[in-house]
């Protein structure tokens, strides 16, 4: 036997771009329809994030042209802050580079892969670079043709130009192959429609391959408050996080390191920590923090009482905005919207669940075979169209006992369940960012929130049933009115049948409108007799 | 407004290890039970791959000890070829490095992430390195403590030792946190049981936390033929593949580049290509191949007739082995196994689908609420336990019209559907390698294969129904035998009732066993009468 197996001559290192080139399905590039929607998704979420950071009301344009066969040109533009020249290459042509990955802040994107993934997809399906044009509000406009060196994961720039001009924003145009424009529920237009629901402050213009133009107008001129970048909460930390942050810290003592780098750590808390950890020296240098000590600290954190993490970092859409958007798009007969208090998962990562249920109108999923209950999912306001099966939101809705809310037939009802998961860190199941991992706390919280909405819808549906029953009862009573009027006139030998009938109808419709279900025919007859007496009296009075 | 938005001061680059550290759920490290199974999965598939490459019958050991709380020590050992000292670090402590990623060959692992992912998981959950010991069959044994520098994705080795000793194989022992040992269907033991089903040539020893020992013995001593590394087929290429390979080629002409690097490209085919592509110079240097020419070549490839890709690169388990394994584990009443011919997906990536259906015995999924139809999934013989919802195999089985096969009640029948997907490239949906992407050709082929099995099971079940009906008919006829025997004796005034009865029973059970459903009572009566006559005759003969 050879000293070393010859297989080891084949040992190689690979770049992350090579990995995703070979496993492009992990980025959402699988299937022609999904691939095109993924491109739109990456560009639009980048634009929305950039505008939000810069406090700009977003104006976003998406244009799609079919070139030939399965090639499309996609052009995305925004009025955001633009990208400085020196960062264009890395931001759009290098994977795992960007401003988002390491920040503790609510953002749609968070991985630094998306836009560079599109650049790579253009390269591997058409061999062409994407054209980039950007300005940061100065008098210079930078443009280039940008590609990616897959072997090394480095950007490649061609035809770089810096010209005079006024521009603020970013324009990207690329030709992509193995894509297909689709008008259905998984296509770009459906994606943008959902984006508009969750981002009423954005204006989105879409131009499709057949010259169709769709404008999603801004429903609200209020610039959403910028989500703040926050310090992590001690409860959200793992030992590994703590050790790594400590080892990179320039603070002189562990105590000051804790106070400077985490939220809710006061000098009082440091005192409590010292009490719990007599054998850990909190005056030692953080860069020397040992794993065992860090483990003790994490354990002590969990035994202290903490103020909950600050939630300024989290900006849900807001009840009013959600209502506006849902009315706009679904025009429902009934709607219940809930925004629950912030919770945490994995111990200390704050998140908020916003949910709504709509009923009637365009609610539900309408297909040729009829209507069915629908779930529309969002994470940090970005629509999730794919991978529904593996998503915490779908799981929560599925696991609910709809029967308990009188909606045994959920699957065939005109109901839409809306869920927006908002957090500084969304635990996506894959780099394609289309499903949220089934973390227990997340699934539980979504369930509770959807249940609250379901309860309200239940009351509404009960009301409808009661209204229906009321109507039936009224009709039944009305059938007696004719006879009753005649009988009463005959019995008393006085009065006018038509006049009495009108009076009885008014009685039934008026007095018993609100609580007709409690009234009985006898009562009605009694009232009718009283009315008759009254009529007689008044008549007698008139006659006298 | 500032020249550049201050957000860009936050621009950073990150390593792939950092990416997966933050998104560990993408590697299968989500949930305590799943995380432990993922560790076992990564080590076992690496061992099986290494043994297969080296032509060694695998002896694999997995030992799990619960340390405290949610920490476990996992020890994995094999008798494979071992790893040469200079590659240990990169093979086990660096992501996207290894022998597998770029090779066109059937393997369980294919990404160069798995084992390094485990090293990282040990680090981030317990702060400890993994202990590695390996020998390549020489008189030296190398050992070290290995960790990973997450910031740079580089291996860190401590306590390196080279000692005298005889050893061939690899031992890894690590302490992992945030894990839980579970005996259920998602735990390590269930994983190993399924591994044994699909790898009858492997011996696997398991030692669990409560000193339980389980041995999965080798069911076959035949070393499976080594899958061959093959050249890619022209039909499986994208333009991007072709351009990239050409640009890295040292061949002098495009024509020789094609013949040397792809399967089924003969000089005859080059001639045909020249005919189809008069304006592409096949004598040009491949390193200068332009995208447009490559596109034309890919188009021309699709118009030529090709011999199908070689399938020596693909090694299914084989019908006999599958049967042995299924009998062993499920002990079914009925079993149908199918291995269809190799097919291709994405134009030219060869794959084979092996399927089986078992019925009865331990088939199906047995829970407290009863039994239900079960699907057990494999890719290149590695069990897929998680993410069933998003897997092509599940989809294929779900989409089947079980009703057509008389199995409307599939969901509550003791049926197990076994599917092994075998290919040089498995299109996993995620880096956790637990589900196969829903490629149309793959789903279609799985369906066809499962349908063939289902048809056989249908015949079996029909047979059971018929056998049941036959039995009922026989019982009905038997009820007449008593009476018939008495009547006949009385009518003829001769013969012995008991003796005649026995004869009739024998008649019914014997002569009509095979086709009793075609027999009628009259026929039976006729035969009985004939038997009676015969009896009389023999009696008379005896008396005469």
Describe this structure in words.
- Two copies of one chain form a homodimer.
- Chain A has 544 residues and is of the alpha+beta class.
- Chain A folds into four domains: 16-216, Heat Shock Protein 90 (2-Layer Sandwich); 234-303, Helicase, Ruva Protein, domain 3 (Orthogonal Bundle); 319-455, Ribosomal Protein S5, domain 2; 462-543.
- Chain A is built from 14 helices and 18 strands.
- In chain A, strands 7-6-5-8-3-2-9-10 form an eight-stranded mixed β-sheet. In chain A, strands 11, 12, 13, 16, 17 and 18 form a six-stranded mixed β-sheet that branches. A two-stranded antiparallel ribbon of chain A has the order 14-15.
- In chain A, strand 6 (140-149) and strand 7 (154-164) form a beta hairpin.
- In chain A, helix 6 (239-247) packs across helix 9 (291-303), helix 12 crosses helix 14 (521-543) and helix 13 crosses helix 14.
- The radius of gyration of chain A is 32 Å and the shape is globular.
- The N and C termini of chain A lie far apart (132 Å).
- Strand 4 of chain A pairs antiparallel with strand 1 (12-13) of chain B, so a sheet runs across the interface.
